[in-house]
What we know:
With about 210 residues, this protein is α/β, with parallel strands linked by helices. It is built from seven helices and seven strands, in the order αααβαβαβββαβαβ. The strands form two sheets. It has a five-stranded parallel sheet with strand order 2-3-6-1-7, sandwiched between helices. A two-stranded antiparallel ribbon has the order 4-5.
Amino acid sequence: MEMKTENRNLNFFIHQMGKDNLEERAVALRFQITNSKQLLLGGLEFFAGHHGEWLEGYERIADWLTDNRGKSIVVTGPYGVGKTILCMHVLPALIRRFHGKCFEKLRATELCNEANYRKAIAAKFIVIDDVGTEGQFVDYGNRHEVFSEIVDGIEQQGKLVIASTNLTPQELRRRYGERTFDRLCANATIANVVAESLRGKYERTD
């Protein structure tokens, strides 16, 4: 009889511990946008000022727009494949249009500035362009790996992050370490755009 009582108490404790842990973790915004492929291509054409070309990897971005499942997104790929236009302009504009959320926008190289570091850590919705080019922010001798702290915020504070990078997933792992990369993969969609640079291929039509 005592053994059964102890087992019930233990089960209750484990259940409650798991419940408390879930309550402590903030939930990121989940959104769904229909006709995402058409909207993505239209946004590219609008902000780039020329005909939009559908590249390998864009489909994964469109799927994220259709239902992000509460996850952030990191768009990887070489120079000139539309990462900055997508992340700094198209995706934030669509989320603002359909869900009313405004994003703090920063280039990674700006994260070493104290004011921008504070903004990045505090922001609920944030875009970081060109991840991997930033240095560390030093505060009274304490060195901060800012992007790693932002990734922590996705899991702990429910941040919604849109990020672009020229680094491959393997390079991201080496740059930020196993812990940050593991958290990033668990809480963000990684969309790898595979193509040659489009810069200079099209003339602006505006």
